[in-house]
Amino acid sequence: MAARGVVLASILLFSCFLETCCGMISFSSLQRTLLVTASHRQALLKAGEDKITVTWGLNQSFPAGTDSAYKTIKVRLCYAPISQVDRAWRKTDDNLSKDKTCQFNIVKRPYSNGNQTLEWTIEREVPTATYFVRAYALDANGNEVAYGQNTDAKKSTNLFDIQAITGRHVSLDIASVCFSVFSVVSLMGFFIAEKRRARKSQQ
Ligand SMILES: *[C@@H]1O[C@H](CO)[C@@H](O)[C@H](O)[C@H]1NC(C)=O
Ligand SMILES: *[C@@H]1O[C@H](CO)[C@@H](O)[C@H](O)[C@H]1NC(C)=O
Ligand SMILES: *[C@@H]1O[C@H](CO)[C@@H](O)[C@H](O)[C@H]1NC(C)=O
């Protein structure tokens, strides 16, 4: 009984700690120490097909040891301001626990000194919008401590456009539905006409 109480108390304490620790991180408090580049085909990129090559690493202008607390790197695909207008569900919030700018996970892997590269195939779920890429450095507690992005602070350079899968196939789907309805109707018409003719020839 007492043991259970202790466990409960520690869970409560731990969750309080989580609340305070993770609700407090603001984007503006993060240092921009990572260099991030994203290269891709110079065209409208297609979700589910096209690839983006992301490279990240520490900006070497920062003193040695700047990255000593970095344990994990989280790279994400983020909505550019133009694709956030009138969309509360993509809104940027300085409070990172409320921020909805970067909704798509590209990769999460242990931090390692030196540049890292990853070729990522754009996920099929990614909607049509304009994007940039951002990387967060996380400490041992999983809290964001630094970042980098392939665009400037205003999020206006090096943006790229992705076209969703659905947008491309909707017209094709409509065409095939129409075609199916048309074939069912014409088949029915054919049977009815055939029956009538049979009845007439019997009479
Ligand atoms: C950030 O949002 C979380 C969750 O809504 C909240 O608990 C926390 O107090 C907020 N932090 C700041 C600094 O506004
Ligand atoms: C690297 O960091 C330095 C110092 O903060 C900054 O002046 C420089 O612009 C950064 N380099 C790049 C490529 O962002
Ligand atoms: C990492 O990439 C940056 C450019 O993004 C480059 O200036 C730097 O030399 C690279 N570092 C290494 C160790 O390759």
Automatic annotation (TrEMBL):
Q: Does the keyword Transmembrane apply?
A: yes
What's a GO biological-process term for it? response to nitrate
The portions of this protein that span the membrane are 174-193
Give the signal sequence positions. Answer: 1-23
Keyword set for this entry? Cell membrane, Membrane, Nitrate assimilation, Signal, Transmembrane, Transmembrane helix
* Pfam families the record matches: NAR2
Cellular component terms (Gene Ontology): plasma membrane
Q: Which domain of life is it from?
A: Eukaryota
PROSITE patterns documented for this protein: PROKAR_LIPOPROTEIN
Give one GO molecular function term.
nitrate transmembrane transporter activity
- Give the similarity note: Belongs to the NAR2 family.
Q: Quote the function comment for this protein.
A: Involved in nitrate transport.
Q: Supply the name of the protein.
A: High-affinity nitrate transporter
Q: Which organism is it from?
A: Durio zibethinus (Durian)
